[in-house]
Automatic annotation (TrEMBL):
This is RNA polymerase sigma70. GO terms for molecular function: DNA binding; sigma factor activity. Keywords: Sigma factor, Transcription, Transcription regulation. Residues 127-173 form the RNA polymerase sigma factor 70 region 4 type domain. Residues 29-94 form the RNA polymerase sigma-70 region domain. Belongs to the sigma-70 factor family. ECF subfamily. The lineage of its organism: Bacteria, Bacillati, Actinomycetota, Actinomycetes, Kitasatosporales. One of its GO terms (biological process) is DNA-templated transcription initiation. It comes from Streptomyces mutabilis.
Length: 196
């Protein structure tokens, strides 16, 4: 139980430090989550410069509105990821809508489909990065190295039942990426919604 309380305690203390205007707290938060934020934004936008802008926007928002985070709703990491996702999807919609209006190529349905695909891909990336290392290792062996559960068990030094359990749990977590499209759906962070 004590291990589970540590991140929540850190999250609350970080929020309090940000609310007091401690610049060092923002630096620590940036060091901890910048690669996550940039990676998710880049996954949605597929544009390095746009991902840089979203990264700045996310940390500016956190700095200006630290009370927008509610520790009772989930971890700070999840809130920051949801904020990143929302801002990146808004930017994608804005830029794609402008391109649609300017060029006249494509349809609104194609735009929404592109936004949905980018959102699901970003959510899947976040899930894989966030899952426990044993589950991630089993999935990586099965997917990237084309190992079956028996080979995965041998590579990881676990029983075949344990390898199957890890693969099943990892795949169940990944399956929630598709469900994260709307607030209140399974897989969406509670209280933070999935899509913009």
């Amino acid at each position: 139980m004590a291990k589970r309380d540590v991140p929540q305690r850190w999250d609350r203390k970080m929020q309090q430090r940000l609310a007091r205007g401690e610049a060092a707290a923002l630096g620590e938060l940036y060091d901890r989550f910048a690669s996550l934020v940039h990676g998710l934004a880049h996954r949605v936008l597929d544009d390095e410069r746009a991902a840089d802008h979203i990264t700045r926007d996310v940390f500016a928002h956190v700095w200006e509105h630290p009370d927008a985070y509610d520790p009772r709703q989930g971890p700070l990491r999840t809130w920051i990821a949801a904020l990143t996702h929302r801002l990146a999807v808004q930017r994608l919609r804005t830029t794609e809508t402008a391109a649609l209006a300017r060029d006249g190529s494509g349809t609104v349905e194609e735009l929404e489909s592109k936004v949905r695909r980018a959102a699901v891909a970003a959510r899947a990336d976040y899930i894989v990065q966030s899952m426990p290392a044993p589950l991630r290792a089993a999935l990586e062996l099965a997917y990237f190295q084309r190992r079956d559960y028996r080979q995965t068990a041998a590579d990881l030094g676990v029983t075949e039942d344990e390898a199957r359990r890890r693969l099943r749990l990892g795949l169940q977590l990944l399956s929630t990426a598709r469900d994260a499209g709307a607030p209140g759906t399974p897989g969406a962070p509670p209280g933070y919604g999935g899509a913009a």
